[in-house]
Specification:
alpha+beta, 4-stranded parallel sheet
Length: 486
């Protein structure tokens, strides 16, 4: 089996799938094509995805070091001077002071996202990472799909079995409960904002599944949470219940719409020590971890020696191979003899971002998207593919990036075209058809802080029609888990 091609005569029936999804809504107001089988990955692909998880974890650790040292004016290298205050300025741009202070506070130093999810395109030359998500959607959905498709794929399904039998649901609980190590069965609340309402059903499902396993986990709207002394509480059966751990399901651009957020930020600045009189919030509200421009910083020529010093040779090589060349769109005035660190136009360097408007179709094989801390920064809302746009659309996108730069930076990234694959799906009548499409893979890595490593517990595949250049969840796509097929 290669590239996701599977035996169409086997798998889950259309009736079973329709009935199962009819009983359980995983995404609000979202539908997709159903498939009888999981998406197949060969041994080489699985190995690459497994080792990528540790590289992503190492990247987050090095990024924190870069951000903190840049903020404090410290030297970035061991044997020569390299100061880069502009890194912190990039990552802080447009953020409220309280959020910046939180992200640099000593009480949250060393805290990383407990679940790491890169977005990977399957190309002819391997995987291309287009994003690294610290507040990933799809955790509950992928866990649900793992349980459903595990009926036919068994232990070959990625995430069906892990270390000591830990599945994706148990892994999610583990990384949250680890934030309250002195409490036998901590009370955990998952707070889902209005902006993230689409993902509430999957969070409800995973919380219900954990309660069936004897865990105390509930989903609430942030408005249902109230401060009470040094704690926050929610109402359970009419009585206030103190919360031990908060899992926030909102991105930080949404901060002003989350009533409890300012309390949590203020609490972190009160001088407490992580784990002592400070409510654990995961993922930590550290805005630099939600910026896509981290990928541009990784490729920045001035910072190359920093990454080589603070990443292992293996992690550096994996990231260099997987992250496409990326640039920060920062419009600045240059002296006459200077050029931008940017793509070439007409095979020549450019001195202003506006010159990209004149790039030819081939030179516009670039993705332009907002870096973070903006309502259009998640999903595919701000994504523009230059080679798939008219000159007018491309020009408008460039000018928008330039105009927004004072508060919201954009990044440019070389577009790696996904390869065509074939996989069986059900059509509207319930018949199996072969769908030719392109695939995005979202592996979910769960952090083990004590061992400073990660474990892969599931991979969500999104198969879109072949004519779609930008891959994301859509009604004519198919969502499925992944299986190791050799």
């Amino acid at each position: 089996m290669n590239d996701g091609v599977m035996n169409e005569t086997e798998g889950l029936s259309f009736e079973v799938l329709k009935s199962t999804f009819g009983e359980q809504d995983l995404f609000k107001d979202k539908t997709w094509l159903l498939s009888p089988r999981a998406f197949g990955l060969n041994r080489t692909q699985m190995k690459e995805i497994e080792v990528l998880g540790q590289a992503c974890y190492d990247f987050y650790r090095a990024l924190e070091l870069l951000y903190v040292w840049s903020s404090e004016g410290k030297n970035l290298l061991r044997n020569r001077e390299l100061l880069a205050p502009w890194v912190a300025e990039y990552l802080n741009r447009g953020k409220p002071e309280s959020l910046v202070a939180y992200g640099l506070g000593k009480c949250v130093r060393g805290t990383l996202p407990p679940v790491i999810r890169p977005d990977l395109l399957l190309t002819d030359s391997g995987f291309a990472m287009t994003e690294l998500d610290s507040v990933p959607g799809g955790i509950g959905l992928t866990a649900f799909l793992n349980a459903l498709y595990g009926r036919i794929h068994g232990s070959d399904l990625v995430g069906c079995e892990g270390a000591k039998g830990e599945d994706m649901v148990d892994a999610f609980y583990r990384v949250l409960a680890a934030k309250a190590p002195n409490i036998h069965v901590p009370y955990i609340v998952i707070l889902v904002s209005d902006e993230a309402e689409t993902y509430r059903p999957e969070m409800e499902w995973i919380a219900k599944e954990l309660r069936h396993r004897g865990r105390r986990v509930h989903v609430f709207h942030p408005d249902a949470v109230m401060p009470l002394g040094d704690s926050i509480c929610v109402g359970i059966d009419g009585d206030p219940q103190a919360v031990d751990v908060v899992y926030r399901f909102w991105e930080l651009f949404d901060l002003s719409n989350v009533s409890i957020a300012e309390y949590l930020l203020g609490q972190s600045n009160s001088g407490g020590v992580m784990g002592e009189n400070l409510l654990p919030v995961v993922p930590p509200m550290r805005a630099f971890q939600e910026e896509k421009l981290g990928m541009a910083l990784f490729h920045h020529r001035i910072l190359e020696d920093f990454w080589r010093e603070h990443l292992s040779k293996k992690s550096y090589a994996i990231l260099k191979q997987t992250i496409p060349q990326t640039w920060v769109v920062d419009p600045v005035d240059l002296p006459p003899n200077a050029v931008l660190d940017a793509p070439f136009v007409n095979q020549k360097p450019i001195a202003s971002w506006e010159q990209l408007i004149d790039a030819g179709k081939r030179e516009r094989n670039l993705i332009l998207k907002i870096s973070g801390f903006h309502e259009s920064a998640w999903g595919a809302r701000s994504v523009v593919l230059g080679s798939d746009s008219s000159r007018e659309e491309w020009e408008e996108a460039i000018w928008r990036a330039v105009r927004m730069a004072s508060t919201s930076l954009h990044i440019l990234q070389v577009y790696k075209k996904p390869k065509r694959v074939v996989h069986p799906v059900y059509n509207a009548k319930g018949s199996v058809v072969s769908m030719e499409g392109r695939v995005r893979l979202c592996p979910y890595y769960f952090v083990n802080e004590a061992k400073q490593n990660v474990g892969l517990r599931g991979i969500l595949a999104t198969l879109c029609p072949a004519d779609k250049k930008i891959i994301h969840g859509m009604k004519d796509a198919s969502l499925m888990p992944c299986v190791s097929c050799d």
